[in-house]
Please model this.
Amino acid sequence: MEVSEAPSFRPRDRRPDALGNFLVLPNELICAVLELLSPRDVARLSCVSSVMYILCNEEPLWLSLCLNTLNGPLEYKASWKKTVLHLENVSYERDEACRKPLSFDGFDSLFLYRRLYRCHTTLDGFSFDNGNVERKGKITVEEFSSDYDGKKLVMLTGLADAWPARRTWTLDHLLQNYGDTAFKISQRSSRKISMTFKDYVSYMKVQHDEDPLYIFDHKFGEVEPGLLKDYSVPCLFQEYFVDVLDKDKRPPFRWLIIGSQSLLLLGMLIQL
Model:
């Protein structure tokens, strides 16, 4: 007696009914179009169909909506959607307590999966130094100029060992001394966005953004001169030709860069 295998069950693809004429567009193009809408229009569109509900509730979309509308201090509210709702003066606490996020079968997206994967990938599987780059500790200016400068790669070690920043630039110390200080934030738009250090740390500890925000401030020394006392320019790089220019004409020459582990990973993935 032959036993036939039961047919595997596969949920019906909900894209045709949910997207209509937009079915011809790939998910990545639909997501790009959604970024051009206002937050309130995106909220309305999420009520149209199940697939639109999924696409309109993606965190990267709400990050873009936030950066497109904000111009000034940024206060992160546990998620980018909540942050935008706060900016729009829309109350969400009561609604959140009564309603759980909806889930649907019959929908899969390689584009959304790849983005989710990049958001949650860690550095554990990456190697930073496999010995191909020469390491050099104590080195004179003459030796660096004759053997390495513009000639070959070298990893200089020990240059920052005596910096006070090696001891004082911890999250706890920086929060205690600069928690209320606003620093400029890197982002994709031309808008000037800043966050207080304590708000940025709150964001950094919980975020899983594909393209995370990070502090990138070239005027940190003017904002907090005390930070300039925590480091010094290594002897190998004391010569700075921009010094011949007037101070108001000099291009940016120092930056404070602070970010999460995923920021470093993002740089590695871009290089790959």
About this structure: Strands lie at 135-136, 155-156, 182-184, 194-196, 215-217, 256-258.
